[in-house]
Specification:
473 residues, alpha+beta, Chloramphenicol Acetyltransferase, six-stranded mixed sheet, 15 helices
């Protein structure tokens, strides 16, 4: 039995039917490289061998009565791999839009908390007889870095499957060693004991938060005196169609862009690849909002998740992540002005992030009683406050660096590896980018009751990159 950390528990407490806290990945497989027929049974066996080595995917959640401490993980005594796997065949002609629709529907419902918090679908019928693997996992199980580790258990670096065939199979003996699920009395006793032996947890968290706020104030004063451009701040975002009360529906769209194009722009203008990603998103969003008569006269506020793995050796959280707040200058017409503004605001955001530290989320959660956090987050959405108050942020953009070489699953080459982030209350758009084998795989997630046409936004991303490429040339 293992207790969740405050940072991991946060994703459970703020979850609701309209704000599911799972993330996802969509892998497109090319069966022609597999050497032999890539059947659903063969894929299932490959997945079983890989996931048998990942303890977190066999654990289920057990809530502590009255919310007096964070939930615990136990190995599920009734674990059944086939409960987590499903098969779907797209109708003809199996175009990308059909996959988009399926993924949006697959991601809309919450995961069943009485079982390990993940699901996977094998999707057949894509163009060219390709196959998609769609997996969703609760964020309390993974962040960007730990998600890559799980992905590594499914993926081979060659088409020969040399790594996967050497893994142990999904044998019944593992289930026999599963933990006993603790009863209510044991859970309450354990929680009270844990609180008793760590009585200073809330006080230490409060001290860390106070120190972070003091560091933030010092950084802000130094930047102001130096004449630096004001940085993005939460709750300072303009109201746009991207923001409002979320519904239970989700929509997705995917595209691939050459990584060399981003590097070419980076080199030409002295920026970073991440600056170029944000500038390209700014151009696409300017076009999207302008077409709806909703272009603000000031920049959007964008949350950029940043991994803090390795910054604190004592942190055992799965989620070691913080956020930068960056301006997306959609109010600027010139693409180079947008890129320069993104570069400047990103540099300031890094300074503020260093001042806050990477543990601010866990510290804040540790200070707030679990029940109060859950009730407060749900009341915020149900009261329609996201439509009345200034948005915390307009959107989320994340950039994850993946392996530069070709990848394979059961001998089939992974020709697309698209990430899907999550939405937070009041924020209707997430754009997540994953670099792999010379391409940027772009995954967009939105609430379709706020954003009406993700395909238009994808086309805008392509046009925005082409603008910058033309100027770089």
């Amino acid at each position: 039995m293992e207790r969740l950390t405050a940072a991991d528990s946060w994703y459970l407490q703020v979850e609701s039917p309209t704000v599911p806290m799972h993330v996802a990945g969509v892998m497109i497989l090319e069966p022609k490289t597999a050497g032999r027929r890539l059947t659903p049974t063969r894929l299932r066996d490959h997945i079983a061998r890989g996931f048998a080595t990942i303890p977190s995917l066999r654990r289920r959640l057990v809530e502590v009565p009255f919310g007096i401490d964070h939930p615990v993980w136990v190995e599920d005594p009734d674990f059944d791999l086939d409960h987590h796997l499903s098969r779907h065949i797209l109708g003809r002609p199996g175009e990308p839009a059909d996959l988009d629709t399926f993924v949006g529907r697959f991601l809309s419902p919450l995961l069943d908390r009485s079982k390990p918090l993940w699901q996977m679908a094998l999707v057949e019928g894509l163009e060219g007889k390709r196959i998609a693997i769609v997996v969703k996992l609760h964020h309390c199980l993974v962040d960007g870095a730990s998600g890559l580790a799980i992905l590594g258990e499914l993926i081979d670096l060659t088409a020969e499957e040399t790594a996967s065939t050497s893994r142990p199979s999904d044998t019944p003996e593992r289930a026999e060693r599963a933990e006993r699920v603790p009863g209510r009395t044991e859970l309450v006793t354990g929680a009270l004991w844990n609180r008793a032996i760590t009585p200073m947890r809330p006080l230490r968290a409060a001290a860390h938060v106070a120190s972070s706020i003091a560091n933030l104030a010092t950084t802000a004063t130094a930047r102001r005196r130096s004449g630096a451009t004001p940085s993005a701040r939460p709750l300072d975002a303009p109201r746009t169609p991207l923001n409002g009360v979320l519904t239970t529906r989700r929509a997705t769209s995917f595209t691939q862009l050459p990584l060399d194009d981003f590097k070419r722009v980076r080199t030409a203008f002295g920026a970073t690849v991440n600056d170029v990603v944000l500038a390209v998103c700014s151009g696409a969003l300017r076009e999207y909002l302008d077409a709806r008569g909703a272009l603000p006269d000031r920049p959007l506020v964008c949350s950029v998740p940043v991994s803090t793995h390795g910054h604190d050796d004592a942190d055992r959280s799965t989620n070691q992540v913080s956020s930068l707040f960056v301006h997306l200058p959609v109010h600027l017409a010139d693409p180079l002005d947008r890129l320069a503004a993104v570069h400047e605001t990103a540099e300031g955001a890094k300074q503020y992030h260093a001042a806050l530290g990477g543990s601010i989320l866990g510290d804040a959660v540790e200070m707030i009683p679990t029940t109060l956090l859950r009730l407060g987050s749900r009341a915020y959405g149900r009261s329609h406050l996201p439509s009345l108050l200034p948005p915390i942020q307009n959107l989320i953009v994340s950039n994850v660096v993946g392996p530069p070489s070709p990848l394979y699953i059961a001998g089939a080459e992974v020709v697309g590896l698209f990430p899907v982030g999550l939405l937070t209350e009041g924020t209707g758009l997430n754009i997540t980018v994953f670099s792999s084998n010379g391409v940027l795989n772009v995954g967009l997630l939105a609430c379709p009751d706020l954003l009406d046409d993700l395909g238009e936004l994808v086309s805008g991303i392509r046009r925005s990159l082409e603008e910058l490429l033309a100027l770089a040339a």
